[in-house]
């Protein structure tokens, strides 16, 4: 997720459920199969989905699993001392100073990309392409008719740009200023407020341009376009928006303690489109997280079986 990730609402899933192993005959490769693998449960639904997919598949391999609620930055202390075993969805644009320190000290190991296709930037409902001809190119936003359509009493004569909540941090206002755009960035009150405004705009066909990220369940039910961003004044995080990598991080002793689990997690991937559908089921439809994940696993054996089979070898 973007820098907002560590501030998204904590879903309150204080799970510490040991899942009994059910797959016999793999003990030669499992390692310490009677000691639970403790997976970090971070603060956003996408990470809950990824973590529960990994957990349920580790159970199929024959492991016990505990889900441990963890903060985005504090998780690295837990991974460093082994009180957390692994974190499977770490957004690398938001790891703080503690990640490079624990990595350099060889207390943690980065075992590769989750292959989660991420996006971050400026979005608009697709009908805006008629309001601002030339979208998705950013220069379309500078056309007088587009600025007028997006102007509000709060921002006039400027157009209104809906930004992340103020306490998340955002580069939108900086990029607007870098490119002398006639826009005022107005912070949303919360993630929920961002989504609510997108949905309300979609329903009323109201002009809107806003900061957003993916995967997110709102992208599974709203037809949006992504602005082709203006050139970066500087190649820095403050002046540029680039899709972040998402990595899988484990405690440095993980591979020696749970060899098959280590091989499995190295191979483990999550598809962003599939994740968004599961997020929608959990966040919007109120379905049970474990049940949603189990349904995906039951229907997608062809996707995950190679990871599990490869880990048995």
Automatic annotation (TrEMBL):
<feature type="signal peptide">
    <location>
        <begin position="1"/>
        <end position="28"/>
    </location>
</feature>
<keyword id="KW-0732">Signal</keyword>
<feature type="domain" description="ABC-type glycine betaine transport system substrate-binding">
    <location>
        <begin position="36"/>
        <end position="299"/>
    </location>
</feature>
<dbReference type="InterPro" id="IPR007210">
    <property type="entry name" value="ABC_Gly_betaine_transp_sub-bd"/>
</dbReference>
<dbReference type="Pfam" id="PF04069">
    <property type="entry name" value="OpuAC"/>
</dbReference>
<protein>
    <submittedName>
        <fullName>ABC transporter substrate-binding protein</fullName>
    </submittedName>
</protein>
């Amino acid at each position: 997720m973007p820098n907002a990730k560590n501030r998204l609402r904590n879903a309150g899933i204080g799970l510490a459920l040991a899942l009994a192993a059910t797959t016999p005959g793999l003990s030669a490769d499992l390692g310490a199969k009677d000691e639970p693998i403790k997976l970090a449960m971070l603060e956003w639904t996408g990470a809950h989905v990824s973590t529960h997919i990994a957990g349920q598949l580790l159970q199929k391999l024959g492991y016990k699993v505990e889900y441990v609620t963890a903060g985005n930055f504090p998780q690295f202390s837990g991974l460093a001392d082994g009180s957390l075993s692994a974190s499977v969805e770490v957004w690398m644009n938001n790891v703080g100073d503690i990640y490079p320190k624990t990595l350099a000290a060889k207390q943690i190991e980065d075992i590769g990309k989750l292959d989660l296709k991420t996006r971050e930037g400026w979005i608009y409902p697709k009908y805006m392409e008629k309001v601002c001809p030339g979208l998705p190119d950013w220069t379309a936003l500078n056309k007088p008719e587009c600025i007028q359509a997006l102007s509000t009493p709060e921002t006039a004569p400027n157009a209104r740009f809906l930004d992340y909540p103020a306490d998340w941090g955002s580069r939108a206002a900086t990029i607007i200023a870098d490119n002398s755009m006639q826009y005022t960035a107005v912070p949303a009150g919360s993630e929920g407020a961002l989504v609510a405004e997108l949905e309300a705009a979609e329903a009323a066909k109201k002009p809107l341009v806003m900061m957003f990220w993916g995967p997110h369940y709102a992208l599974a039910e709203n037809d949006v376009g992504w602005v082709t961003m203006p050139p970066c004044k500087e190649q820095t995080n403050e002046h540029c928006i680039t899709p972040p990598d998402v990595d899988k991080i484990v405690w440095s002793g993980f591979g020696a303690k749970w060899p098959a689990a280590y091989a499995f997690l190295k191979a483990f991937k999550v598809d962003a489109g599939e994740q968004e559908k599961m997020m929608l089921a959990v966040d919007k439809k109120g379905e049970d997280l474990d049940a949603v994940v189990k349904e995906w696993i039951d229907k997608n054996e062809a996707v995950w079986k190679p990871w599990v089979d490869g880990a048995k070898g």
